[in-house]
C-alpha cells in the first residue's frame, strides 16, 4: 500500500480530534458537558429522522434484490462498467447514491455485512459513501427553501459531480488499499 | 424523482418475482428489510449521538469560527459574485466548515441560511443564480474531512480500524469537489449570469 504512514495516521485522527476539541473547550471555559448533551440530543433526532428512511428504503431494496431484479439489472449494466474497472457489487450503490443518502447508506451496510468492513468492496463502498452526497436531497432542500423553480444547470453539475466523486473514490481507494 | 425510484423498486421487484416464480420471497423480504432498517439505525445511534455532542462542544469552543476565518480566501475564490462583507459570506463559511467537519445536520441549516441570503441578491426570484448553484455543487460533491457516519458504520460492522479510510475519503472528496466546481465554472462561462 502506498502512503502507509497515512493509514497509520488514520488511527490518530479521532483521538487527536477529540483532544483538540476538549482542550479548546477547557481553554475557553466552555461548559463542555452541557454543550455535549445539547448536541447529542441532535444525534437522537437524526436517528428518528433516518429510521423511516432506512426501514422504507431497505424494505423496497430487499424486495427488489430478493426478486432477482437487481441481479438482472446489474448483469445488464456490468459489461458497460467493466472496461472502467468498476466492481459490479458497487453498481447498486453508485446507482442509488444521488437519490437517497439513507438507501445508499443501507447498501453500504449490506455490503459490509456481506464482504466485511475491511474487504476491498467494503472499503471502496465506505469511501464512495463518504466522499459523495445525495444530489437530489440537497437540490430539493436548498432550492426548496427559497422557491427556486428554474434550477438551470444545477442538476447537471450535481450529477457530473456525483459521477466524478464515485470514480475518484474508486481510483483513490484502489490506490490506497489494493496496492 | 425519489418517489418514482422507491415505487419502482417495489413494483419492478414484485413483477420480476412474479415472472420468475420468486413471489414467495417478496413477503419474507419485506419483513427482513424492515428489520434490517431498524438494526442499521440502532447500530448507528450510539456513535451518531456521541459525535453530534462532541461537535457541539467544538462549535461552542469557537473551533467552527476559527475554521471559517481560515477559509475566507477560499470563499472569495468560490463565490466572486457575492459582495465582500455580505451576510451570505458568514453562512457560506459556516456551511463549508460544517461540511468539512462532517456535521451533515448542522451544514444543512447553514446552507439554507446561505441560500436565503443569496436570494436577497437574486434579481429574478425563482431562478437559480450562479453562487446558488456553486453552493449546491459544493454540497452535493460533499467536501468532507470527517465522514462521521461512514466511520460509524464501519465501527458497527467490526472494522479493525474504522477510521483508516479517512485519508482516502479526504482525497476522493477533494477530487470530486474539484471536478464539480470546474464543471460549475464551465457552465457559468457558457450560460452567463
TrEMBL record, chain A:
Bilayer-crossing regions: 6-27, 47-70, 124-145, 157-177
UniProt-listed InterPro entries: Gate_dom, SpmB
GO CC annotations, alphabetized: plasma membrane
Keyword DNA damage on entry: no
Domain annotation Nucleoside transporter/FeoB GTPase Gate: ranges: 47-148
Keyword Metal-binding in annotation: no
Keywords: Membrane, Transmembrane, Transmembrane helix
Protein name: Spore maturation protein B
From TrEMBL, chain B:
Swiss-Prot/TrEMBL keywords: Membrane, Transmembrane, Transmembrane helix
Residue intervals passing through the bilayer: 6-26, 38-58, 133-153, 165-183
Domain annotation Nucleoside transporter/FeoB GTPase Gate: ranges: 42-155
Top-level division of the source organism's lineage: Bacteria
InterPro entries to which the protein is assigned, alphabetical: Gate_dom
Protein's recorded name: Spore maturation protein A
Taxonomic classification: Bacteria, Bacillati, Bacillota, Bacilli, Bacillales
